[in-house]
Amino acid sequence: MAQIPNLDNSPLNLKSLREQSLRDLVKILKDIRGKKCLVVEPKLGGTLSLIIQTSLLKEYGIELRHLSAESVQTDCSKVVYLVPSQRDLMKSISSHVHDDISKGLQREYFIYFVPRREVQCERILEEEKVHHLITIGEYPLYLVPLDEDILSFELDLAYNQCQVDGDTGSLWHIAKAIHKLESTFGVIPNVRTKGKASGIVSDILDRMHTEEPMNSPDMALSEINTLILIDREVDMVTPMCSQLTYEGLLDEFLRINNGSVELDSTIMGVQQEGKKMKVPLNSSDKLFKEIRDLNFEVVVQVLKQKATSMKEDYTEITTASQTVSELKDFVKKLNSLPEMTRHINLAQHLSTFTSKPSFLAKLDMEHTIIEASSYDICFEYIEEMIHKQEPLVNLLRLLILFSVTNSGLPKKQFDYLRQALFTLYGFEHMATLNNLEKAGLFKKQESKSNWLTVKRALQLVVEDTDTANPDDIAYVFSGYAPLSIRLVHNAVRSGWRPMEEILKLLPGPHTETKRAGFTSSPSFGILQGASNGLDKIADGRRSLVLVVFIGGITFAEIAALRFLSAQEGMASDLIIGTTKIVNGHSLVETFFETFG
Amino acid sequence: MANVSVAAEWQLLYNRYYRKPELYPMRWKNIDLSRNKVACAPFGGPIAVIRDDSKIVQLYSESALRKLRIFTSSGVLISDTVWKNPGGRLIGMSWTEDQALICIVQDGTVYRYNIHAELIEPNVTLGKECFEQNVVECVFWGNGVVCLTEGGLLFCIPDFKVMSPCQLAETGAEDLPNCMAVIEPKYTVSGNVEVLVGIGDGILIVDEDSVQRVEGEMVQGPVQKLVVSWDGKYLAIFTHDGRILVTDINFKGVLLEYNCESALPPEQLAWCGLDSVLLYWDDTPLLMVGPRGDPVHYFYDEPLLLIPECDGVRILSNSILEFLQRVPDSTVTIFKIGSTSPAALLYDALDHFDRRSAKADENLRLIQKSLPEAVEACIDAAGHEFDVSRQRSLLRAASYGQAFCSNFQRDRIQEMCKTLRVLNAVRDPEIGIPLSIKQYKLLTPSVLIARLINAHRHLLALRISEYIGMNQEVVIMHWACSKITASLAIPDATQLEILLDKLKLCRGISYAAVAAHADKNGRRKLAAMLVEHEPRSSKQVPLLLSIGEEDTALMKATESGDTDLVYLVLFHIWQKRQPLEFFGMIQARPLPRDLFISYARCYKHEFLKDFFLSTGQLQEVAFLLWKESWEPGKNPMASKGSPLHGPRIKLIDKAQHLFAETKEHTFESKAAEEHAKLLRIQHELEVSTKQAIFVDSSISDTIRTCIVLGNHRAAMKVKNEFKVSEKRWYWLKVFALATIRDWEALEKFSKEKRPPIGYRPFVEACIDADEKGEALKYIPKLADLRERAEAYARIGMAKEAADAASQAKDGELLGRLKLTFQQNAAASSLFDTLRDRLSFPSVS
């Protein structure tokens, strides 16, 4: 099975988007004549694996390399760098060029920036005195379909950059990506935003509409009905909780990257000592599609059940005489055997983590924090974590959860914990803590926490969730309904108005706009647009909602969204856009900045 | 019948009819073509006229200075200028495709004029050889020229857009050629220009690097004149013995041969479309020769100029302009005398209809079946007419016929009407572009509009582009720029209003481009006002920078939300202004400020410190210093030998002092102080233990290392130095002792006094080290029964665990423990019984 997901069942024609990206890339590579060495930034390389198979690159006479500090070893006289527009990469490229010059190598250099060239990068090339040696181009890859209902803008650092550095470049990128989507699928008439960054994106998007109006007549029909922009800042509680869906757990323990996990082949039952293997995880795998969003407890049962039924079938086959058609059915079932083994292996591997008492204790603590009933117990638990010097990420995750639900800690305890952290983990973490404080994730308490009110009003804690037959999204965290998804649910169902009071308690402003879209185009445009709108409702097609998470979304939240859209009475399909798929670990890690 | 008069004007050449409708009576006065050098642009383009300095002419009441005058095809003066260019005689003059006038003078200098008779700088020269040898002849084509020097060398400008001359291969002949013709690059196989040179007894084909002699019988003896057809496929040759030959461009086969009975070559030889060739001597009638049949003679008593077009020839005389063309087939079928074609009958039927004659119906019945083609023919014929009333009657006939057709493409008539409206508009004598429909199609509407704009016919261009649904942006943009150039005296505010009034007609027009033009014309203020209206920040901001509106640029870039634009402005100002000025500009603007900080944090530490100092953010400077304090440690080369802690501590101390300046940062100040202290102690430890393992570990790691090394005194010292709390001390020591598996010391430690952290850490440390026996020493000391139960469970002692749990009366715990003992059936049942016992009382 391929890592590139099959997108046939997508509610939008994402395939055409992906093909366009592929064509753009191939054009760039073809336009540079002859043999060349393509140097790709590793993370971007991961992203590209969702668009193109690396084997295909070889057909264009390409040697593929990953960008690193070391200079490029190749016989090709043309070196093509394909990199995101990040400042820090420019230094390595410049040093490569200088290195070649000092060795007397004459090469042609190209840099293709993804998604566009930026002055700040070129400035560094200029300062390094290599700018004039390099041909600069752009590869406008603003988004990548991760799966049939997920689009990623591939902005790993978006949240950190916005919250800590005040660098809103990623927001422009998101707006541009949505704008590009609109140029393919029509202007989205309804926009609802919550959170500061969401507001900015929506503003930039509006600006783009006035700067480059879309007035060609075939734009009148809009495939996407509503855009919901949620700033991660609004809900930092959810990502800090341990995800309990199958896919969520896989991500927590094994890290899913670009729709696949890499693990020891022994885990997958392949006897090759020490070898790593990649296991693709996307909806092209039918079994995975079925179980990815279930609570892990249930997954174990489902797999067990399936295995048993297969075993029964097998015994039947071997004992009784069978008709040909029955045999055929059985063989068909056997086809799913590789998928079965794959997920049984994975699930087994996961349960070695989930059965640990420390894991259960952590879950327990997360729920205690969310319940916000016993402050002291939580504080002591965290203190003990520090004493035991547990991994810093784990500690910070819980600390953030604790701080956010309490809207900060009283100064005395804040200083106490900080001091303890320095004592045990070292002073070099000053910068990390400073970043977290700037982002408001671990800070001094300045006002009373709204968490209890919000929790109650949105029913975030649901007792007695039946994980096997869930009737509420709370199943994804075994009892905690993610705040972010509760918001989305309300936004899809009834808009912001009925819940204004609650929204005011959460960070950042909220807006709700209806875009006229075609006001300045000739009158027939309006007529056409209007009638189309009516047609759509009449023919009973489900409207499509694009939910964009600025700052990342977790698999558990995705599961909850899929659960919602599958509910009866939900008249919309959901497509998810995100800066990146995140989990508590990866989010916290973006804030890491150690001195030294 | 009315039709007869139409055909009466036609001439028959073999089996083809020709006509030459008058396009315009020339509106100019006192222009004598024979006294002047004249260049006429094809596609009804302008006419450039200048007194011919190679002829001796009598001056009437005119200045001795020559004047270059540019007229429309109808003879309306567009512009004139005095010719004062040095370089000798004017040899060649022609229009380019972009309607620039190319004038080549003797010394090889190329002057270019636009249609407004303004010299386009810079002048180009054909090179040193031309300068030395003098140019004697030029042959132009649409976009290039070949020049011949007195020395017989050929030079070429292959593309007027590039204007880079090159020399062609040398012919080696001693004599000068009799005649030359050019095959345009687009028609040659090589894609380079080829020149046909009639020289000596034959023809040479010359290109950039080769000369080739044409073999073949048909060219025997010197050739006097050569002309290539407009499609580059045929060649007309006038031979020394007075014959006119037409061959295919590769000299294969003679398509036409006619003996003109004059060995004197014609002054002008021109193709009329592709069907016939015109020859003109100035004292005999104009001769038109076709492939067969007798030639046609046209009589004129004035000098003529033949202007070849793709579908005919325009004939310019002093007083009129005519268009000689083969009568289109559709027109022939309708107007040919005695024609009974369906189209002719349809046209006739309309006439009857207008006269209320019943014969109209009769005609229609006659052609019922072929009505669609009749309608089509009428539409087509209308398209070819120059006469508006005839266009009208033909279209009426078409429309009349269409009414009886069920399946006819109805928009054909409408389309033709539209085209004709455009054509009639530009054919108006005031505009003077007499395009035929074929020329119009070939030229394309957008080029026509470009030409109108170029001639400053903006209103007409705007109307036309609106009428045929083209983007008006080009027109309005050009108008705005011309307006700015033309009216430098109008005050900015008024000018702005005038411009905005028109610019708003077109959505998405680039105000920035207009503003840039205003700036180029020295109207900086107007530019600033215009650029204000540009909606696209990506265009607006760079322009604002170039006109020095840095503050506005920064504001606009920030508003756009496009960080790249903000950076663009930042770098610009950063480079141009003094640091303090720069800081002042960004200080109050969050986005630019943050972007600057983020950039400078990576690459310009010192500059960033200056910024923070200027804004009084001392703590930020302190953070930077603190961060720098790690730098020396990173460099492995530096760490050899000299003690590093000195400079590092100095930096941290500095940071600490800065933190201390503000009240809010006492915590950081204290932390920095401790850090410095820690580094000192660690350094001392490294010196005393002679092991470089302390620096850059945390306080607790330092203590742990001491314990692990068995240096308990040092550990104690560090503990006291940093006032490490008892609790933390216990945690540390317990795990440190467990790491070195010093169980004895651990037990001793547990007995020193009652541990402030209880015994659980002891238990955990032992279990983690997989020492059950050691763990058992502490488990019974656990005060909490639940903890005790779990601890037992963890080392696999089911019974003890169960006992403790049941003592704790915790059913849930029992259940959980049971799960952990799932594999062990005996233990599992044990839990069940215990739980049953527990739940029993609660039920009762």
TrEMBL record, chain A:
GO biological process: vesicle-mediated transport
TM stretches of this protein: 544-564
Keywords attached to this entry: Membrane, Transmembrane, Transmembrane helix
Domain of life, source organism: Eukaryota
Gene3D superfamilies the record matches: 1.25.40.850, 3.40.50.1910, 3.40.50.2060
Keyword Magnesium (UniProt): no
Family to which the UniProt record says this protein belongs: Belongs to the STXBP/unc-18/SEC1 family.
Name of the protein: Vacuolar protein-sorting-associated protein 33-like protein
UniProtKB/TrEMBL annotation, chain B:
Record protein name field: Protein VACUOLELESS1
Family matches, as PANTHER family: VACUOLAR PROTEIN SORTING VPS16, VACUOLAR PROTEIN SORTING-ASSOCIATED PROTEIN 16 HOMOLOG
Pfam families found in the cross-reference section: Vps16_C, Vps16_N
Keywords: Membrane, Vacuole
Protein's cellular compartments: Vacuole membrane
Family affiliation: Belongs to the VPS16 family.
All residue ranges annotated as the Vps16 N-terminal domain in the record: 8-412
